[in-house]
Amino acid sequence: MSEQSKHEETGLAVVRADAVRDPGLEPHRVRMTDKSVKHEKRAVRQVALLFVISMLGSAFALYAYFAFPITEELTTVRLNNMYLGIGITLGLLGIGIGAIHWAKTLMPDNEVAEDRHPIASSEEKRAAAIEVINLANQESGFSRRKLIRRTLYGALALFPLPAVILFADLGPNPGNSLRHTAWKKGTRLARDPYGTPIKASEVTVGSVYHVIPEGLSPEQEDYLEQKAKAAVLLVRVDKDILIETEEKKSWSYQGIVAYSKICTHVGCPVALYEQTTHHLLCPCHQSTFDLVDGCKVVFGPASRALPQLPIYVDDEGYLRAQDDFNEPVGPSFWDRSAKN
């Protein structure tokens, strides 16, 4: 059977080797910067100006970070983010656009086609490659054009500083501070944000309460910090379905359990409760915790269960904390690094 017949039988098209021709390289278009020294110098100034804009943008980002501090007012957050973003954007765009403009107007733009070889080159070819690199350096003018080189160095030196300041100002590792919250022995559980104490009789099966320690007031200087660490979800389920260890059997009351709202993945608030499955869901990265089985992780990136707040009921029927959490709240990596 001929080759043509084989292709017809399989349904494959037959393409001749010379059917697709090499289009070759387009004619080189001479740029104005190649023909005119005046245009070349103008391009140099433009590239340097873009690098200077990058330096100014990075410097402005540093200034804005301290000039517009974040307070409890929402407008300060917006101003800080806006001006910081403008500065960082200018710092990045100045470098990027400057490098592109430099390449398009001043660096060699001749198209070259070279064959690649699958084996290592000889010493002669390596030496020739070094000569090509040196030639490219001369043609691009990196060593010769001091204005571009110095402004580029300045832009590259200043651009990372806003990020360094931002990360450095995150403060010390919070692992130790998360070992203790505002919960103390005898503290009554109160509704968030009203601060109304909760009676056990008010908590029906399937209901969910967002809880804070009684007495925690917005007038306190560290109110937001203390509230964020002590936030709790209070849920009541059928006590017969609770899976409790011997140690924690006394931590609940007739199916009422209390768990930290801070996800053990990266600290997002766990605030979604699925009544049919008894799962608590973190909306940030979908970590899922089984409420009836010690809030163990059943799905998602979280690596440990939510800390449980031990509770009891006083003589008046109010829910109170037996003590603080017996382990740090929040992300696990803080706890691990604090131990190390």
Write up what this structure looks like.
It is a single chain. With 340 residues, this protein is α+β, with helices and mostly antiparallel strands. The protein has two domains: 29-112 and 121-168; 177-339, 3-layer Sandwich (Rieske Iron-sulfur Protein). The protein is 38% helix and 11% strand. It has nine helices and ten strands. It has helices at residues 3-10, 32-35, 37-67, 74-105, 123-140, 146-158, 161-168, 223-230, 332-339, and strands at 189-191, 208-213, 232-236, 256-260, 272-274, 279-281, 288-290, 296-299, 311-313, 319-321. It has a four-stranded antiparallel β-sheet with strand order 1-2-3-4. Helix 3 runs antiparallel to helix 4, helix 3 packs parallel to helix 6 and helix 3 (37-67) runs parallel beside helix 7. It is elongated, with a radius of gyration of 33 Å. The mean pLDDT is 85.
